Amino acid sequence: MADCASTTEGASQETAPDRGSLLRRAQAAFAIPLVFLGLGLYRAWIEIVFVGTFVSFPSATVTVRDFFDWTMVATAIACTLLARRIGPFFNKRAPFVLGGVALTVSTVLMFASCWVPTLASWSGYVAAVVGGFGIALMILVWSELYGCLNPLRVALYYSASIVVGALVLYVYRGFMLPWLFVMTTLLPAVSLVAARRGFSLLPPPERPATTWTQFSVPWKAVLFMAAYAFGYGLMEGGMYVGSFGPHSAPGAVCVAALVFLGVAFRGGRFDFSLIYRFALPLTVIALFLVPVFGHVPGQAANFCMAAAYTAQSILIMLICANICYRYGVSAVWLFGIERGVRQVFMWLGRVMADGVESFEAFDAMGDVAVSVLAVVAVVFATMLLLSERDLSSRWGANFLAGGTDSADMIRKQELADRCTEIARTYKLSAREEEVLLLLAQHKTVGIIERELLIANGTAKAHVRHIYQKLDIHTRQELFDLLGIDQREAASQD
C-alpha cells in the first residue's frame, strides 16, 4: 500500500481537482452513447400524443387521457405480477415488438381523427388503451436497461434524456401536421431500437439477471414518489394551459440540465441529496404559498412544481435502478410497482383538484386545504427519505426466504450487504463504498474509473484510502475480509 504522503496527495486530488481533471471528467461525461438517450424519445411521444399535447386532436378528451393512464397502470401491475414468468425483457422479442406496434397503432389512430373527424368518437379510446399498453412496456424496457448501470451513469444518462426529449418537442413544434405525424410515428420504433442496442453494448455479466430475486417492496421510495405524484396531480390541470407540456416545461428542463452538469463536472463528489433538498422548498412554494398568499404568478408556481417533480423522478430512477444494480432485483417487477403507484396517485391528485373546483361551497379555502394536505404528504415522504443513509440503502425492503433461483445471485446479494456493513463499520464515504463494491466484483482500477466517470488516478486514490481505513495492503486481504473464496477471486480476476 502507498505511504501516508501519497495517500494525502490522492485525497487532495479528489477534494480539489485541478482544471485538467475537471476537463477530463467532463469529456468522459459528455461522451454518452447516443442509444442511452433514446429514453427521451418516448417521453416526447407521450407529450405529443396524450399528455399536454400541442396538437388539437378531436379525440383528445379528459376521459381518453384517463383510459390511457389506467391502461398503463393495469399493464404495469400485470407485468409486476407476472414478472417471474415474463421477465427479463432484454432477451425477448415480444416486449419490443408488441410495444412498438401498439404505440404505432395508437399514433395512427390519434392523428387519423384530425383528418377524419367522424373517427373521433371511438378512435381516441382505442388509441388510449393500445397506447397505454405499449407505453407501459416501453417504460419497463428502458427501466430494465437503466437498472444495469451504476448510479452515476443513471443520473447522467437519465437527466440528459429528459433534456433531449424536450429538445425533440421544441423541434417538432415547427412541423406541419403531415410531417409531425410521420416523425411522431417514428419515435417509438427508434426508441426501442436504441434500447435494444443499449443492451447489446453491456458486457454479458452486467445484463439483467435471468434468475429471480424475491424482494419485498421498497415502500419508503414508493411512498416518497407517490406523495410528489399526488402534489403534481393537484396542479397538473393548470400546467398545460401555456406553451409547454410536462416533458418540455422549463422547470423540468432546467432541473435535468443542472443534475447533468453537476454529475458531469463533480463526478463521484456530486451530492445526490441536493436533489430532494432542492425539490422540497419548490414544492412548498408551488402548493402552499401560491394558494394561501397569491404572491407568486401561476407560471412561477408551474415552474416550481415541474422542477420539483422532475427532480424526484430522477431520484426515484436512481433509487430503483440502484436496487436492481446492486441486488439483482427484477426491474420489471420493481418499476412496475413504482410506475403503477405513481400514476394512481397522480390521478388521485387530478380528481381531488377537479372535485374541489367543482364545489363552489369550498371557495378559496378548499384549494388551501388540499394544498396543505399535499404539502404535509410531501414533507412526511421526504422525512422518510432522510432516514436512509444513502443510495445504497434498501428503502424499507428486505430479501425474502427462498427468493432466488441461483447460488451466484445469492452470493451477489451477500457481497453487497457485506460491503455495506464494512463501509459503515470503518466509516467509508459513499464513494469509497461504491469503489469497494466494484473491487469486490473483481473490477480493475481502469474499469472503476470508466464506470464512475472519475479522472485518471482518482480511483487509485480511493483504493488507497480504503486500504488505509481497513488496515490492509493487498487485494487478497480485501477478499479475505469480504469472505470471497480465493479460487473464486482467481477465476474472475
Q: Which features would summarize this protein structure in a list?
A:
mainly alpha; Growth Hormone, Chain: A; globular; Arc Repressor Mutant, subunit A; 0% strand; Sig_transdc_resp-reg_C-effctor; 493 residues; disordered C terminus
Briefly, what is this?
This protein has helices at residues 4-15, 19-30, 39-49, 62-81, 83-86, 94-115, 120-146, 151-172, 177-201, 219-239, 250-266, 273-293, 298-327, 331-358, 363-386, 407-425, 430-440, 445-452, 458-470, 475-482, 486-492.
Estimated structural class: mainly alpha
CATH architecture of the largest domain: Up-down Bundle
- Quote the average pLDDT: 80
Instruction: Say what the CATH topology of the largest domain is.
Output: Growth Hormone, Chain: A
What overall geometry do the principal axes of the alpha carbons give? globular
Q: Could you tell me the strand content as a percent range?
A: under 5%
Give the SSE order as H and E letters.
HHHHHHHHHHHHHHHHHHHHH
What portion of residues is helical? over 70%
Can you tell me the number of structural domains?
A: 2
- CA-atom Rg in angstroms: 23 Å
CATH superfamily of the largest domain: MFS general substrate transporter like domains
